[in-house]
Amino acid sequence: MIVAGFGFRHGAGLPSLRAAFVLAQQGRVPVTQLVTVSDKTAALAPLAALLGLPLTGVPADVLACAATLTRSAASLAAWGTGSVAEACALTAAGPGARLLGPRCISSDRMATCALAEGFVS
Q: What are the transmembrane regions (predicted)?
């Protein structure tokens, strides 16, 4: 399974979220679900509906447990993790998951997306 994790600023719209997703997904296998912090799922719902993919929220308190490839000072201060997108993807993909690369950032810098591969048992 391939999980697309998202981090985004308040006010990020569908164009920003979709742009980050397209950058992250290019040339990859199909994504099976979208994920973000639990209290932000409503903002990501329009993209999930557009793509016809399930949407999952992860609790904010588990993000700091994920080892991310990138380290944003703002993300560390607000969420306790170097990348919300990477941490969400890893957490939702489950034990043994691996990132397929660092997060991708929309051109307006409002949204980030990272892909993680999980292994279904």
A: none
Q: What is the pLDDT of residue 35?
A: 97
pTM above 0.70, yes or no: yes
What is the C-alpha to C-alpha distance for residues 61 and 100, in angstroms, rounded to an integer? 23
Q: For residue 49, give the 3-state DSSP assignment.
A: helix
Domain spans in the chain, listed from the N-terminal domain onward: 2-117
Question: Which residues of the chain fall below pLDDT 50?
Answer: none
CATH number of the domain at 2-117, out of 3.30.420.180, 3.40.190.80, 3.30.200.20, 3.30.1330.10?
3.30.420.180
Rounded CA gap, 42 and 30, in Å? 23
State the DSSP code for 80: S
Q: Note whether 112 and 7 are within 8 A (CB).
A: yes
